[in-house]
Design brief:
Layout (H helix, E strand, L loop, with lengths): L1 E6 L11 H4 L4 H15 L2 E6 L3 H11 L5 E5 L8 H10 L3 E5 L21 E4 L4 H16 L1
Parallel strand pairs: 1-2, 1-3, 3-4, 4-5
Length: 145
């Protein structure tokens, strides 16, 4: 079973930006923790990050063909990334949306997600642990399906 873990704009800057929202772990730290959990679950994970919506669309169109599910932290694209949303929909794979911070407790513009209605679940505000929870849930969901 292969699960894609996709990260959008500015997530490459984790560990250097607004620790009160995003914590102190880098994206590489989070990837290591997710990889450790993936080994425990006997799941393959593939990581991708881009600051460009088109690159994320290209990646999803290519990589989704060989995957069973997607975990995505779309960053700011969460609120307006329609072409990314369409690529997620077109993949026909189950999607879990994740956010390090609680987007519902922040600025009003962050409350709306263009992904939420196509995702099987959303995890927000649990920091880096949300990635691990998303992996555990999605792996369980796929094994039941």
């Amino acid at each position: 079973m292969k699960i894609l873990v996709v990260n959008g704009p500015n997530l490459n800057m984790l560990g250097k930006r607004e620790a009160s929202y995003y914590g102190v772990k880098t994206l590489a730290d989070i990837e290591d923790l997710v990889s450790d959990k993936a080994r425990d679950l006997a799941v393959d994970v593939e990581f991708f990050q881009s600051n460009h919506e088109g690159a994320i669309v290209d990646y999803l169109q290519e990589a989704a063909q060989d995957a069973e599910g997607i975990i995505i932290n779309a960053g700011a694209l969460t609120h307006y990334g329609i072409s990314m949303r369409d690529a997620l929909t077109d993949s026909r794979l189950p999607v879990v949306e994740i956010h390090l911070s609680n987007i519902h407790a922040r600025e009003e513009f962050r409350h709306h997600s263009v992904i939420a209605d196509i995702a099987i679940g959303q995890i927000a505000g649990l920091g880096w642990q949300g990635y691990v929870f998303a992996l555990e849930y999605l792996a369980s969901h796929l094994k039941r399906s």
